[in-house]
């Protein structure tokens, strides 16, 4: 198996392919946590051995979309990914989302299903069910220091080195603020459950979302549902790409 047939490739515009097996049978479209892109998964993706192609969503303000303004609404962003993905999803594909990315992947799954091109499954991680998503207080009014404290207290995610690096703060914080604004703007609208298998993964030490909250995703599928807990905190997915993909594949068998 050729693990890195395309080490880093851009799939059209909206996704970056970071792994492609020579015998790939399944397209994986992965949406990262707030502020992140494909770079957060590259190291862990080196351990992937499944027959898949791993494509990571590229959101505005980062990587090859660095110059894109942070102005799109959540609906506009989901529509953009839908318009990019829907015309070329002939092969079996799955959606995987981590935290904020779970909401993105869920909303995209709904649109793709309504268009008659559903994914074969959805995997969500470290985010409460769509009708339970709550982020209070809202973060827009917080100073940079207060915002870093908020991130650290809620998610345990701020390296000490970041606080002393003004250039990194200037680059990183606007992107995270933007993604969290999108999450905070979400207003749940009741819809039919997805007719596809749904896998929910919780982190055993996640400060933000516990397994009980993840269990509530069961109401959002009319197909099979499974909840599993993986060792780690809110960011366990960045170090567990292969186990997550493997669990996703196992749910299809």
Summarize the SSE layout with pairings:
Layout: E1 9-11, E2 15-20, E3 26-31, H1 42-45, E4 52-57, H2 74-85, E5 93-98, H3 100-114, E6 121-125, H4 144-155, H5 160-163, H6 166-185, E7 198-203, H7 211-215, E8 225-230, H8 241-250
Parallel strand pairs: 3-4, 3-5, 5-6, 6-7, 7-8
Antiparallel strand pairs: 1-2, 2-4
Helix pairs in contact: 2-3
Family: Belongs to the thioesterase family.
GO biological process, one term: lipid biosynthetic process
Protein name: Linear gramicidin dehydrogenase LgrE
Q: How would you portray this structure in words?
A:
The protein is an alpha/beta fold and 253 residues long. The chain has a single domain (9-133, 190-250), classed as Rossmann fold (3-Layer(aba) Sandwich), CATH 3.40.50. It is 32% helix and 17% strand. The protein contains eight helices and eight strands; from the N terminus they run βββαβαβαβαααβαβα. An eight-stranded mixed sheet has the order 1-2-4-3-5-6-7-8, with helices on both faces. Helix 1 (42-45) links the parallel strand 3 and strand 4. Helix 2 packs across helix 3. The longest helix has 20 residues, at 166-185. The protein is globular and about 50 Å long. The two termini are 21 Å apart.
